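Hi D.,

Good news: the full-assembly prediction came through. Inputs first.
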Amino acid sequence: MNRLDVFFFLFLVVFFLWFGLSAYVVLNRLLHDFRVRALCKAQTGLGASTALTRLSPERSRALHGILARLPRRVIYRITADVSQPQWVSQALSAQILSRWGLPRVLKEAAGQDGGSDRWRRISALSVLTRIHNPRIHELLRQALAEKDRNIAAAAVVLLGKLQDEKAAEILILALREEWYTPSRIATQLDNFATPVAKLLLPLLVDPQPHMRYWAVALLSRYRGFDYLAALLALLVGDPDASVRKAVAQTLGIIGGREAVSGALKLLDDPVDFVRANAARALGNLAQVKLAGSVTPLLADREWRVRLAAREALVDMGPAVRHDVTAQLTSPDDFARDGAAEVLMAIQSPRVRKQLTGAPQWNYRPLTRTSIGKTRRKVEGEVKDSLPRFGFDLSNSKFS
Amino acid sequence: MTMASGWLPIFVEVTFFVCLIYMGLLFAFIVAMLIFSSIESRYRSRQQEVEDYEGLVRSRYMVPVSIIACAYNEEVMVLVSVASLLSQNYPEFELILVDDGSTDATLSLLQREYDLQPGEYFYRDIVPCKPVRAIYRSRKDPRLVVVHKENAGNHADALNCGINFARYPYFCSVDGDTVYLPNALLKAMSLVATDPAAVVGVASFFGVSRAPEFDERGTDGGRTVDRHLLSNFQHLDLMRSFVAYRLAYSRLGCMLCNPGAFAIWRRDVILEVGGFSNGFSSEDIEMTFRIHEKFRREKRPYRILSLPDMVARTEGPDSVSALVRQRTRWQKGMLETVWHYRYMLFRPRYGTVGMIGVPYVVIFEALGPLMLALSFVSLGFAIWAQLYDWPLYLVMMEIVIFAGAIPTTVAISLHDAAYRDYSLRDIIRMLLLGPLDLFLYRPIIIYAELRGTWQFLRGDRAWDKFERNVRLANGKKAALAP
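Then the structure:
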């Protein structure tokens, strides 16, 4: 063979490789489109998203006839896909169980099928979750404890779908054992439709700080729960700063007398992010009468606390004007700058919106003219008072 | 007339074999990368299928993100871009738009559309940047803050300014000329949320269009590609880069460019390395190199990931001259960075970055244009001296054409297998464009790369931004027909 022959042979190899790959892409797509059309046809025949269990035997047979033509790999893959409509997942789960049998699916879900395909295991777990198999909780617990993060991630999502107390218990166990990223586990617990507060409350006295933290954070959903604020207020003296921070955040959400007193105590916390969150909590609760307790934080040594104090005062609304104006004479530069920023911000339309959106006020409703007048008055007062306190608007620089 | 005597035949023969070995090495490397990319693409798409995105959108525990959009004279695109960013399907984020001293209507358009209120807002001068002239917050959407600053002539300065205003632990650097898909942030941040301690950066694929503000959907609801040939080639180029190569680098832990059009970074890491440097033409490549260098040297765990998802459509130049300017800058930026970090080359202490990533960039991207120039010179000599074996040359040319089209085909295959979003007609169009790349697109890129190399050697540091594509006043896309 001369050089030309060698290169011609190489050309043929490369060309057929390109052609073969291109043909594969097109054929694969055609096959996919065909399957999608078949599934759409099945859906149309079924009358939208009717559950498989409610199908007439005739329709059910027709659907299974279509699904029976799909290869195992495809069926398993679609079954695990959480974005698929409910009826597709149900139909495919039924298909898997009828074609390959429950014992095999259980083995796959337990990772005892001899193969090492994590995705097949996840599909098997999805099937068993959908049919609420009695062994599913134990299988998901095992999966969650796996070192493979993909299997653990899928187990967290599937436990979230089960929505029962046993699933919540396993998720809490996973939080304790740190089997998976805590925020992802907390996301599932937070989205539980059934209340899990009674599982979380004992964790408030857990010896592990991260468990107390998550208990406090997750309890913020249970606003109407009796004595919750009082219980949380007890944790303002927790030795762990992250727990105290969570307490401040949760108190800011649930509100109430105990919440206010708890947040007030945390304003003096030695840790900066706890003080910042306490200030924000008071801002959330819009406790105007406590503005005087927040304004000293405008001169805090930590920037994040100063920022939080500014935002909290702005959230409290225009009524903080008196307390904030007093800070304009503060010897501290940060306090003066912060006060000026707050005073400018509280004339914002957000405040106007707040005023107009207060239907429970039993005095004469505010009109657009009266709001305008009030705003102009406040604006005039602030603008007048700023230079009097030696504050030059044109050269103002914050922080 | 035969000149086949003396040094010329030897030169031609040696050059021929050098180029052959070079091409062989390149194709071997590409094949290896395609295998890794296929594994990674399959892995990521399976991972996404079992991800509970609905739950994440409602979650109170997702990491909040500061989106930093830099805009300089972006009056054509800025409103569409901002609207797409504010429509992100993500629980908590803020959008900091840094107007880098625009001289057109960028700022006034934003003021009008978003009812911007000027004011003094708290920020910290942590990383250096040009002075801020004014700060605005939107009355319509309080998540939007517009910072108007003095122009510094580079993207890094605007990014640094945005970082000073950013309040959240992660930020996403985006461009003011790009339209983002609603789940862009969610898809990228879901990876961060899984392992926030290790993931310091995330990139994702973005497509190219002449007018990204138009949603390109066909009658069947599938995504369509731009009908403009140059845009098609650019789109395929990016698809190849992100889907066929960067996924492999991501898997191997040596992804060397987290591109500015969509790059998620952990804020504390960027502050730790001192913010973006304005001493380079491409600050995004340099930052990625810098983080690799630091973390590898200090033996700290970290990951910079690339995702196969298409998260955005950016405006690509629709004229050859504009494309040349853009690619010249990219090449120059890459060379500046590689030269600066040349000590990482083949150094085992830098792991896969030093042993795979940097060598690839140096051998095949930095030296690629020079090898091509050498082959053209050799070809010229060979033709002039009648040394060339034309049948052999044509066969080799065919090999290069189809071998060069294989990465494109693999990229299309991986994208389609994962997302099935393009119509079959567009897939066929893209597949057929693959072999034409060498004739219709590659010469432009080679010219731009040679120009970029020349500018780098001359020490030219100018930041050359391409002019926006022309639109009619009524905004009709038809106006863009070639």
